Amino acid sequence: MDGYLRCDQTVRLVGNWLDGALDPEQRELVELHLLVCPPCLAYVGKVHDLRAALLSLTGPHSPEHLLTRGEETP
Known about the structure:
Blueprint: H1 7-19, H2 24-36, H3 38-56, H4 64-67
C-alpha cells in the first residue's frame, strides 16, 4: 500500500477490518483513513450494524433429515 487509502480501497477492506483479519499495516491504513473520512466511518458503522442485525436473526430450523449426512430417508 502507498501509505494512504482511497475510499474505494477502504470499503473493500472493511469486512476484513471488522473481522480483525488484516495485517498490521493494512489495519493501520484503514484506521488512519477512518480518522479523516466521515463518510467511510459512517459506512463502517452501517456495515457493523447490519452484521449485528443479521447475526441476531432467528429463523425456522431445518428438518432433521436434511441435517443428517450420508443416511437415506425412509
